[in-house]
Design brief:
This protein has seven helices and no strands. The chain is mainly alpha-helical. The chain has two domains: 65 residues; 63 residues, Arc Repressor Mutant, subunit A. Helix 1 packs parallel to helix 3, helix 2 crosses helix 3 and helix 4 crosses helix 7. The longest helix is centred in the C-terminal third of the chain and has 25 residues. It holds the Pfam family Sigma70_r2. InterPro entries: RNA_pol_sigma-70-like, RNA_pol_sigma70_r2, RNA_pol_sigma_r2, RNA_pol_sigma_r3/r4-like, WH-like_DNA-bd_sf.
Length: 151
């Protein structure tokens, strides 16, 4: 029942941090295994979805840390990006936003959380988080317009 109800949100969090594929699926599985072990200690009335998303985020970060690149003296061959990378401008625009703006936009637009639930993850209050997302979206739109005018 818990997996059926919250599995999609957990997978979205894992995919947002790890990208689509086996790493996201592994983090998803690890999330529910860890939740099963920790469930008896969960406080009654706790927000189950927020709790699972927090576990998923930590499991994804653990996977990222475990699979981090090892520094080498020199690269064997130059790294080439695919020509059809596409949304590189959007990625650069996202990097220009504050960390809070990126997180709120991710929780609201990518994971589908209402602003009222996001303070459980990030702190603050719904009004301030809504404003951060609004400012971030405004910045992204203005940068997109500027890029279109230049091309």
């Amino acid at each position: 029942m818990v997996v059926r109800r919250h599995g999609t949100a957990v997978l979205r969090m894992c995919t947002a941090l790890l990208g689509p594929g086996s790493n996201a699926q592994d983090a998803w599985s690890e999330t529910f295994l860890a939740a099963l072990r920790a469930y008896p200690a969960l406080a009654p009335g706790a927000n189950l979805e927020a709790w699972l998303i927090t576990i998923a985020r930590r499991k994804a970060i653990d996977l990222l840390r475990a699979n981090h690149p090892v520094p080498v003296a020199e690269l064997s061959e130059p790294v080439a990006f695919p020509a059809d990378l596409g949304q590189l401008e959007l990625i650069e625009s996202l990097a220009s936003l504050s960390e809070l703006q990126r997180k709120v936009i991710g929780y609201h637009y990518l994971l589908g959380f209402p602003y009222a639930d996001i303070p459980a993850f990030l702190g603050g209050n719904p009004a301030s988080l809504r404003r951060a997302a609004s400012d971030g979206i405004k910045t992204l739109r203005s940068q997109h317009r500027e890029a279109e005018e230049e091309s």
